[in-house]
Design brief:
- The chain is built from 4 helices and no strands.
- The chain is extended and about 50 Å long.
- Helices cover 29% and strands 0% of the residues.
Length: 123
């Protein structure tokens, strides 16, 4: 069910919310389109969160992002300042902001904002 939550709604429980009580060693698998969050750790022990994302493609990447050739390309791409080109080479300045952005805004509106923010100024 499509859902966009306002900042205020994100602070409150959702009527369809389901709490999952886990013990040490448990794992929870969710689909990335599922609205999800986690509660604060109120125990005296550290709680480690590990997130693994599976790609929708069966192709594995064989790109060596540390290679000298690729670093030269990245250096030139940074001079040009094209975020879309850089993203193809694994350098995404907006990764943290966009990676877990679901449910903050309608997808189509969000993509328009992203595209317009990446347009180069006309010369």
């Amino acid at each position: 069910m499509p859902l966009v939550m306002s900042p205020e709604q994100r602070k409150r429980s959702h009527p369809d919310e389901r709490l999952i009580y886990v013990k040490a060693g448990d794992a929870v698998l969710i689909h990335n389109n599922l609205v999800h969050s986690r509660t604060r750790n109120h125990s005296d022990c550290d709680r480690i969160h590990v997130s693994v994302v599976y790609s929708l493609t069966c192709m594995r990447s064989t790109i060596d992002f540390a290679s000298m050739d690729l670093q030269e390309i990245l250096s030139e791409a940074r001079k040009i300042g094209g975020p879309r080109l850089l993203r193809l080479f694994g350098d995404d300045r907006n990764y943290n902001e966009r990676y877990n952005c679901g449910f903050l805004q309608n997808d189509e509106e969000m993509w328009v904002d992203w595209i317009s923010s990446e347009q180069r100024p006309s010369r």
